[in-house]
């Protein structure tokens, strides 16, 4: 503030209204028009004191020169005198500003308006503090008595600005129109003075008045005079621009344009609009830029997917996610796209098999799994990268994968093919000979198996194939590692629960117990039988946990093995009386040392191969009939075993049906593996698995019905069917006729009964 101001002398405390107002008016006018030249502290305090003295004087003054409010007296009249003179001053002051403003247009008008607004509101703030006493006592009392047209001095200044300057100028949309033209210029790429726009827009906000609370923000003026017209012109502008842009540009270009425009409007709110405008503005832009052209975007989505246009897909997702109905058509198209990709990948594999003269059944597990995983990986990446992992697109991906995983060119009408191929692939991964295990990425490969496992509808079929394959890995000692086996079981347990993997874990327990049993038996034999010269190990496997069946025919144990067999039988019966051992000769294996060749070899053989070869310790030449009598192996199976031995050149058959040891047998390896699977055994595996699955399903469905009925006590037929399907879907998809058969079985067994007088309601029998 400046150190001094010239002017009339400060009137005494008892001065009348005319003298008092003359002094105050000069000060008020200086503050309102010449504040930049400064006001001394002493002058400011003098003005404050004069206003205070007048308001607190108990003597009645004459009201000449004052406007006055009839019927008032004392301090009340004095307050109204000052208030009315102040009002009159604002009106006169604003009349001059209005006359200048009416001669101006566009940016010149905005500049003048903004400059005067700054000067006026700054001055009004100072004057408001000068008349603090008037505000605190007279104005408050008047408002408390219900006179809402009386305002604190600063609010009074704004009310007069609105009535005397803003409304007259804005009547022809002069101010708002000037702002809107500047905004349009900016949208067209021109630089504008954003600070100027912000000042004028902020004045619209400040002029809003809540009659009940003058301190409360009110946006009525802003919304009526600026926001409404602004939203309308925005709609018109973008309607025109988007239509003309699309007519001459690609959809990809339009996506970029729409994204840029939406960001510009967001920034516009941040720079110079009231934050309350954000929602209606962005909503209108979304309607014009996105909803109006959503059909076009949906139609072009497939093309973007086909050509892997990641950036465009991201933009399209980002834009369409802004409108409620925007994403659902994309999700459906994406689901169909993934499904087609999966079906096409499998069809190519089947076509390649056919071109090699193989049947559709000949699709190998690894290429099949790799093809499905590649489709999933590619589209899962798209969901993550382009659709931000949105739950709806994840669900579309899952549904499509479930479809092509369970029904494709390789599966045909079979529901067992996919579970079988996945189980076989897992078996190959978990074997010692697998390269993936050697490369150290076995855990990653197993995780990828679980991706596809999740989509299997018939997880019980996978379970049965997996159990069968696991049993063979354990029996033949070809697991890559116990850690990997445990890891896979843990993953299956996490996916399907304890019951799903209970048998698998018990199989490992049996293997551990069998190792201990073998060691104990050997120790006992060393104590009691020095003459034992056969290396022997045993696996005793629980019938309920291992999917193994004994041979369906008799078998004569070779005399070289008989003593050890008898000793173990006696030892086991002594250790576990009452248990019965069923010998699985079809899974047993042996090692034989050759004595008839110059080079000594170790032949790794099945027990049936062993039984045949040991016959040649006592005979030079044997016929098919003699071998059949000596071993009890059925002739059809015996022929296949002999075919393997002759193919390996261990035996020779110079005459039809006659077999001799080959003294000239040679091999590059000292250890020669003759124990190869027989084709009929391999084919029988699939048939056996499906028989087991069908049998297991009967009991699972029955157990589920009993569990449900025990909890519900009574239930209608349809509700029971729905609940059974719901509970079993995670494991397999039960067929309605199978559920009905299970209900009939449980009715016969008196687990449930029909409720009297009804045809379709069942009750649980405790």
Which strands sit side by side, in order, in the main sheet? Answer: 1-2-6
The profile of the biggest β sheet is: 3 strands, mixed
Mean pLDDT: 88
Radius of gyration over all CA atoms, rounded: 48 Å
Coarse shape: elongated
Residues in β-strands, percent: under 5%
Structural class: mainly alpha
The end-to-end span amounts to: 98 Å
Number of strands: 9
Helix content: 55-70%
Q: Please, how many helices?
A: 29
**Low-pLDDT sequence parts:** 1-5, 59-75
Feature tags:
single chain, mainly alpha, 3-stranded mixed beta sheet, about 5% strand, isopeptide bond
Would you write up a description of this structure?
It comes from Candolleomyces eurysporus. Belongs to the cullin family. This is Cullin-1. The chain has about 775 residues and is mostly helical. Helix content is about 65%, strand content about 5%. It has helices at about 15-35, 40-55, 75-100, 105-130, 130-145, 155-170, 175-185, 195-205, 220-250, 250-270, 280-290, 295-305, 310-320, 330-355, 365-385, 390-405, 415-430, 435-440, 440-455, 460-475, 480-495, 500-530, 560-575, 605-615, 625-630, 635-645, 680-710, 715-730, 735-750; strands spanning about 590-595, 600-605, 620-625, 650, 660, 670-675, 715, 750-755, 760-765. α4 packs across α7, α9 (about 220-250) packs parallel to α11 and α21 runs antiparallel to α22. Mean pLDDT is about 90; it is low at about 1-5 and about 60-75.
């Amino acid at each position: 503030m400046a150190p001094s101001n010239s002017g009339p002398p400060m009137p005494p405390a008892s001065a009348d209204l005319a003298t008092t107002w003359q002094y105050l008016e000069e000060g008020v006018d200086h503050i309102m028009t010449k504040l930049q030249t400064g006001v001394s502290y002493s002058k400011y305090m003098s003005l404050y004191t004069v206003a205070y003295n007048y308001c607190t004087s108990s003597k009645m003054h004459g009201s000449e020169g004052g406007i006055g409010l009839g019927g008032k007296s004392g301090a009340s009249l004095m307050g109204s005198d000052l208030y009315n003179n102040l009002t009159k001053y604002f009106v006169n002051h604003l009349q001059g500003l209005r006359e200048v403003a009416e001669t101006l247009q566009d940016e010149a008008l905005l500049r003048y308006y903004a400059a005067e607004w700054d000067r006026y509101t700054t001055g009004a703030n100072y004057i408001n503090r000068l008349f603090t006493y008037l505000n605190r006592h007279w104005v408050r009392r008047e408002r408390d008595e219900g006179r809402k047209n009386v305002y604190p001095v600063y609010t009074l200044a704004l009310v007069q600005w609105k009535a005397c300057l803003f409304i007259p100028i804005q009547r022809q949309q002069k101010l708002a129109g000037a702002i809107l033209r500047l905004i349009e210029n900016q949208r067209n790429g021109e630089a504008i003075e954003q600070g100027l726009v912000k000042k004028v827009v902020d004045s619209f906000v400040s002029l809003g008045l809540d009659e009940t609370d003058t301190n409360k923000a009110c946006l009525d003026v802003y919304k009526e005079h600026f926001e409404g017209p602004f939203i309308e012109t925005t709609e018109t502008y973008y309607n025109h621009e988007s239509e003309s842009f699309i007519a001459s540009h690609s959809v990809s270009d339009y996506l970029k344009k729409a994204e840029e425009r939406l960001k510009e409007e967001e920034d516009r709110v941040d720079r110079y609009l009231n934050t309350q405008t954000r929602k209606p503005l962005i909503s209108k832009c979304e309607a014009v830029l996105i909803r109006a052209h959503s059909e076009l975007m949906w139609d072009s989505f497939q093309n973007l997917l086909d050509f892997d246009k990641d950036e465009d897909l991201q933009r399209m997702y980002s834009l369409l996610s802004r409108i409620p109905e925007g994403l659902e058509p994309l999700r459906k198209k994406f689901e169909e796209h993934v499904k087609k990709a999966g079906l096409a990948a499998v069809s190519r594999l089947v076509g390649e098999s056919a071109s090699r003269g193989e049947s559709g059944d000949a699709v190998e597990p690894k290429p099949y799994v790799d093809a499905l995983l590649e489709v999933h990986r590619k589209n899962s990446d798209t969901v993550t990268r382009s659709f931000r992992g949105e739950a709806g697109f994840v669900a579309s991906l899952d549904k499509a994968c479930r479809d092509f995983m369970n029904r494709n060119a390789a599966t045909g009408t079979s529901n067992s093919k996919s579970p079988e191929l996945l189980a076989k692939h897992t078996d190959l991964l978990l074997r010692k000979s697998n390269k993936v295990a050697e490369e150290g990425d076995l855990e990653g490969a197993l995780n990828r198996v679980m991706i596809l496992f999740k989509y299997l509808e018939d997880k019980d079929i996978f379970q049965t194939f997996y159990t069968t394959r696991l049993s063979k890995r354990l029996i033949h000692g070809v697991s890559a590692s116990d850690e990997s086996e445990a890891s896979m079981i843990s993953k299956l347990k996490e996916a399907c629960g304890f019951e799903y993997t209970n048998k698998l874990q018990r199989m490992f327990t049996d293997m551990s117990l069998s190792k201990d049993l073998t060691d104990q038996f050997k120790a006992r034999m060393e104590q009691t039988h020095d003459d034992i010269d056969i290396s022997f190990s045993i696996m005793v496997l629980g019938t309920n946990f291992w999917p193994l069946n004994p041979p369906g025919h008799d078998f004569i144990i070779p005399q070289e093995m008989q003593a050890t067999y008898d000793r173990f039988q006696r030892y086991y019966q002594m250790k576990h009386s009452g248990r019965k051992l069923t010998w699985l000769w079809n899974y047993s294996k042996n090692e034989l040392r050759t004595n008839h060749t110059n080079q000594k070899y170790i032949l790794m053989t099945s027990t049936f191969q062993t039984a045949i070869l040991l016959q040649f310790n006592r005979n030079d030449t044997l016929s098919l009939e003699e071998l059949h009598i000596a071993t009890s192996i059925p002739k059809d199976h015996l022929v296949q075993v002999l075919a393997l031995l002759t193919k390996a050149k261990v035996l020779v058959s110079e005459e039809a049906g006659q077999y001799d040891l080959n003294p000239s047998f040679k091999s590059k390896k000292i250890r020669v593996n003759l124990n190869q699977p027989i084709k009929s055994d391999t084919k029988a595996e699939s048939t056996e698995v499906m028989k087991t699955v069908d049998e297991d399903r009967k009991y699972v469905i029955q157990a589920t019905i009993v569990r449900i009925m025990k909890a519900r006590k009574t239930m209608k037929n349809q509700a029971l069917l729905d609940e059974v399907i719901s509970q079993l879907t995670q494991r397999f998809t039960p067929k309605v006729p199978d559920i009905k058969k299970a209900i009939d079985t449980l009715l016969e067994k008196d687990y449930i009964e029909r409720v009297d007088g009804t045809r379709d309601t069942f009750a649980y029998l405790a």
